[in-house]
Structure formats: structure tokens, C-alpha cells
Amino acid sequence: MPKRKIAVIVGSLRKDSFNLKMADALMGLAPPTLSMQTIDIGQLPLYNQDLEDEEKPPVQWIEFREAMKNFDAVLFITPEYNRSIPGALKNAIDVGSRPYGKSIWNGLPAAVISVTPGLLGAFGANHILRQSLVFLNMPTMPSPEAYISNASTLFNPDGSLNNSALIEYMTKFMEAFAAWIDANVKRS
Questions:
Q1: Which domain holds residue 130?
Q2: 34 phi and psi, to 5 degrees?
Q3: pLDDT tens, 32-49?
Q4: Beta-strand runs (E) in 60-124
Q5: For 16, 69, 105, 114, which has the most beta carbons within 10 A of its beta carbon?
């Protein structure tokens, strides 16, 4: 079975982000068939169609779009800001979906994990992101779902997960994601 390259896009830009810690932890829990890489979205200028129309897209957009062509699937890990996704994540989605007809997202299998120090597991952000992914034609894993709450209590000082039940669940999540990718991947 071929090793699948997975882009991990983290919605939080904070250097000590719980979402980034979760991304790092998941890379250690992923099956060996997955090769995972975090993609930085913090450097992307805000999307402005005028720059596309004038054929002057920022170099960061071009580099992001080109880099994403190397991946077989995307794992989105997001916090919730005001019952929605962070602006940086929405911007990355918009940058990747343009110019019209050349979306980098089209057909890429995806999964969504939401992580928050709050109690609701960033449920709203998780589902709002899923709405966008449907429109972008990204087959998104429906189950198992991952709404991670109380994130401030889940990590050891070295960033590893300290909750055995969560480690077991996220290991199963990553195994299910690997199977989902194999069933839905369009790129070889």
C-alpha cells in the first residue's frame, strides 16, 4: 500500500496552541501508511480577487497552492472563534479555492478535528468547516467525529497527550482516516 502524504492545517496561529499540540501528537499516533506535514497558513495575505484579476497574486499564495498539490489528503485541526472558524483558516481555504476552476481542494479526502479549552469541543467550528468542505468537493470523513474539549488539561509539559482514553480514541480516529483516504483518494 502506498504511503499517503497528509497536509495538516491548523487553524490556530498561536505558538503554544492546543491545536498545534494536537497536530504534533497525532503525527505520533498515525499509522505508518501516513506521512504527515503541518502546513503554515499564517503567512498568507488576505484573499483579494483583484490580485487574481490583475494577475498579481502574492508569492505566498502561489507557494501555498503549489505545495498543496503534493498531498493526498488534508487533516484540519481548528479551534472555535465566536462559534466559527478562525479567519486565518477561512483565508487559507479561500486562497486555495481560487482562481475559479483551479481549486487545490477539489477531490482531496479530509477529516476535521476541533480542539478547545472550553466544554463544547468547538462543535460549531467543526460543523461550519465541514460546510465549506462539502462545497469544495472534499470527501470529509463523517465518523468518527472528534470534538476535543478541556484541552488545557490534556497535554504533558513536553506536548504529548496525557489522557489514555483520548490516546486510544485518537489512534482509532487516525486509523479510520487512513482507511477513508484509501477509499477516497484520487491522486496517486
A1: 4-184
A2: -110, 130
A3: 999 999 999 999 999 999
A4: 73-78, 110-115
A5: 114
CATH of the domain at 38: 3.40.50.360
pLDDT for position 165? 96
- Extended beta strands in the chain, E state: 4-10, 34-39, 73-78, 110-115, 146-148
Number of domains in the chain: 1
pLDDT tens for each residue of 86-133: 999 999 999 999 999 999 999 999 999 999 988 776 889 999 999 999
Full-prediction pTM beyond 0.90? yes
Alpha-carbon distance of 133 to 173, in angstroms, equals: 19
Q: Are the CB atoms for 139 and 174 separated by under 8 Å? A: no
Q: Rounded to 5 degrees, what are φ and ψ at 16?
A: -110, 35
Contact by Cβ (8 Å): 6, 141: no
